[in-house]
Amino acid sequence: MRQLLRLGVLFILFVSVSNCATIVRGTSQDLRAESTPSGARVIVNGEDKGATPTTLTLKRNRTHQVIFRLEGYDDITINIDRHFKAGAAIVGNIFSWGLIGIVVDVANGSAYQLTPEELNASLNQMPAMSRMEFDDEHIQVVFLTPEQVSDEIRAKM
């Protein structure tokens, strides 16, 4: 009987500090991040979150910027927006906590949906750079990778 009473008190406490969208959806959302080719670093809001493929857990109450970065390839940036989900925030709270629940859902982010939900980046390989070298008898074309170009620029500084 005591255990049943404890469970009842815990349930009432949980319901009193939560609301519909917070309970059902949570304050964060999982997004799948993949790239072609795989192995690109995933940078979210300036923080490295690992290499693709990966699953990102992002807070719903803000927008995010995701950068896919792989050496020898152009970076791809995807902006993740948040969109208000009226069904989760309003309809569910009409039957539970009303305005208080709506305010809490909006404040903690559970009233929002992040889009896009799947992040697929097709990375474009950077073109090789070239330069011509010549003397009185020969013309030579040299192809450089982006890393070699960077190294030459640093060497000349």
List the helices and strands and how they pair.
Elements: H1 2-17, H2 20-24, E1 28-36, E2 41-44, E3 47-51, E4 54-59, E5 64-69, E6 76-84, H3 86-94, H4 98-108, E7 112-115, E8 118-122, E9 129-134, E10 139-144, H5 146-156
Parallel strand pairs: 1-8
Antiparallel strand pairs: 1-4, 2-3, 2-5, 5-6, 6-7, 9-10
Helix pairs in contact: 3-4
Describe this structure in words.
With 157 residues, this protein is an alpha+beta fold. The chain folds into two domains: 2-123, no CATH class; 127-157, no CATH class. Helix content is 33%, strand content 38%. It contains five helices and ten strands. It has helices at residues 2-17, 20-24, 86-94, 98-108, 146-156, and strands spanning 28-36, 41-44, 47-51, 54-59, 64-69, 76-84, 112-115, 118-122, 129-134, 139-144. The strands form three sheets. A five-stranded antiparallel beta sheet has the order 3-2-5-6-7. A hairpin with a 6-residue loop joins strand 5 (64-69) and strand 6 (76-84). Helix 3 (86-94) packs antiparallel against helix 4.
Taking pLDDT < 50 over at least 5 consecutive residues as the criterion, the unreliable ranges are: none
Strand content: 35-45%
Termini separation comes to 79 Å
Number of helices: 5
* CA-atom Rg in angstroms: 26 Å
Kindly give the count of domains.
2
Order of SSEs, N→C?
Answer: HHEEEEEEHHEEEEH
Instruction: Give the tally of β-strands.
Output: 10
Secondary structure: helix percent: 25-40%
Secondary-structure content class: alpha+beta
Morphology = elongated
Strand order of the largest sheet: 3-2-5-6-7
Say what oligomer this is: single chain
Largest sheet: 5 strands, antiparallel
Average per-residue pLDDT, rounded, comes to 76
